[in-house]
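We both want to read C-alpha cells more fluently, so let's practise on a single case. Would you supply a protein for us yourself, any chain you care to pick? Would you write everything just below, so we can both look at the same thing?
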Amino acid sequence: MRQRVAIVTDSTASIPHDVAEQLGISVVQLELKVGDEYNDERRVPHPALAQAMRDGIPVATGEPPPPAFFWNYTDAAASGAEAIISIHISEGLSRTCESARTAAAEIGIPVYVVDSRLVGLGLGFPVMAAAEAAISGATPQGVMSVLDRRLRTTTQLLYVDTLEYLQRGGRIGRAQAWLGQTLSIKPVLALKEGIIDQLTKGIGPDRALKKAVANAVQRAGGGPVDIGVEHFQFADRAQRVLDDLRSQLPQIRRVTLEETSAVLGAHAGPGALGMTVSPAT
C-alpha cells in the first residue's frame, strides 16, 4: 500500500535514529551555536556542549532555516505523497513552526504545519503514532485525528538540577531562578499551553524526582502507554527513573531511553531529565 501522507518533525523530538528510519519520519535539524561555531545540533557532541556550558562559553539555539524544510517537503512530494504533516516543537519555545510555514507555502501539495505545544519525547511519541497511522494507509484527516488525540493526552515533565540555564535563555523568571539556587529547591516543570511552568518541587533531587514519577503515573490512566525518559549527561539517573516508571505502570507498549536533543540540553542544562507518558489508545 502506497503511503499517502509524509511525516516531518524536528530534531527536538528525541526520536531514536533507527525508529525514525523504520517509520519513514523525516527529521529537520535545529541549529546550535557554541562560542563562535554554528552547527546542526546532531553534530555537537553532548559532553563538549555540557563542558562549554559549565565553562560559561556562550551557547545559543536557532530554528532550521526555511530551505531545510523546503527540501524535505520537496523530497516527500517527489516520492508520491499526497500530503505532508509537519509536527514541531512548541511555538512558545521556538520559531521552528514559522520557518516550516514559510517553506510550506512554496510546495505544490498540502502541508499541514502543527504546533505540538510540546517538545522532546512529548513531541516524539505523537509523531511516531502519526507515522504508524500514515504507514497503515490513513488519510491526512485520519493521521491528524491520531496526532491530535496523542498530543492532547501526552504528559511531559522536566526536572532540572538548576534553573540557571532556563533563566539564561529567558524560559523562566529571575526570581524563580534565584530561589531554586539559594534554597536547593529542585523544581518539577511541565509544559502548559506550550510554555514551561512549575508543577511541583522537592528539597533535593530524589524527592523532586519521586514527585515527578508519581505525577506521571497518575496522569497515565489505566490503559496502554508509551513511556520515555531523556536526559542530558545523566544516564544513571535516567535509568533509575525509567525503572521506577516501569514498576508502577501496568500496561506499557513502547519504552524509550535517550540522551535528549542537544538544543534541549542547551536550555535545561547538565543533569536535566525529562519523562513522558503518552496513552497509546
User: Anything to note?
Assistant: The chain is about 40% helix and 25% strand. The radius of gyration is 18 Å.
